[in-house]
Amino acid sequence: PLRAGENQTSTMFSSSPRSSRRKKTIFVTVGTTKFDLLIEGVTTPEALQWMNKNGYTHLIIQYGKGTKPRSSLDDAGLLTVETYDFKSSLGADMAAADLVLSHAGAGTVMEALRLGKRLVVVINTALMDNHQTELAHAMAKRGHLFVVEQPEDLNKTNSTSSLMETWNDFDSFVPIPHQGGDPNDFSNILNQHMGVVSLPTAAAAVETSKAFEIANRIVTRVYIVNQRMRAFPTYPSSVDRQRMENKID
Questions:
Q1: Residue range 98-120, pLDDT digits in tens
Q2: What is the pLDDT of residue 1?
Q3: Of the ranges 34-43, 138-147, 189-198, which one carries the lowest mean pLDDT score?
Q4: d(CA 131, CA 52)
Q5: Tell me, what's the pLDDT at 9?
Q6: Which DSSP string do the residues of the chain spell out, in sequence order?
Q7: pLDDT per residue over 63-103, tens digit each?
Q8: Most CB contacts within 10 A, which of 168, 184, 198, 244?
Q9: d(CA 146, CA 153)
Q10: 187 near 203, Cβ under 8 Å?
Q11: Which residue, 218, 228, 231, is CA-closest to 190?
Q12: Cα–Cα distance between 213 and 106 in angstroms, integer?
């Protein structure tokens, strides 16, 4: 299950009466992070125009720690728009979505693939040394998801059709289903990028969902350790530690 925090604030609005069209939903999620450029990219007039033209009726935005989208979207057309910061679980919104746009969080990616969703992962270029981005690229090479290299690409316009090039690519993208069932699959991708030797015997004893959760925790811990190593490039020797403890010059 996806977890995005404890508190929840939700806003729903529609600029036009609901039509009789079949419900078709886009779900945008940033997890527990802040990714305002993604939120801005999916709420531009061009993006909303594309959604309306391609038959989407609902837009659900989970904006996390970022800035809440404006309270009304004049360009929403027939779209019903819902926004919120956090929910205890994002599973229901993701399960109901026809198209998912997300950050490169490992948990979000694997949940969307498990549900067989058409997934577009937008890379947060503000993050450095992001191992989650590497994992998203690995899954994209297998054809499981579509990667947008930077959020600014969501605003590229096609001069001949006046529609966004990247958004048009979403409709033509046909993902290769992620079969699952192999608890080593995700961990092997992680090991490939981290240079860690696989332990198939131990991994085989873990259910697939739990294996994904463990791998996600590893990614997070590696990132934290990496940041701490940047702050303290060299580990002090025992003499240095004693000097610091005793305040010896």
A1: 999 999 998 899 999 999 999 99
A2: 41
A3: 189-198
A4: 35
A5: 61
A6: -----S---EEEEESS---SSPP-EEEEE-TTS--HHHHHHHSSHHHHHHHHHTT--EEEEE-TTSPPPPS--TT-TT-EEEEES--S--HHHHHH-SEEEE---HHHHHHHHHTT--EEEEP-TTSSS-HHHHHHHHHHHTTSSEEESSGGGGG-B-TTTSSBHHHHHHHH--PPP-----THHHHHHHHHHHTPPP-HHHHHTS-HHHHHHHHHHHHHHHHHHHHHHHHS-SPPPHHHHHHHHHT--
A7: 999 999 875 677 788 899 999 999 999 999 999 999 999 99
A8: 184
A9: 13
A10: yes
A11: 218
A12: 9
Token pair in block for residue 71: 């309270």
Selection from 127, 109, 154, 107 nearest residue 2 by Cα? 107
Q: Tokens 């404890």 label which residue?
A: 6
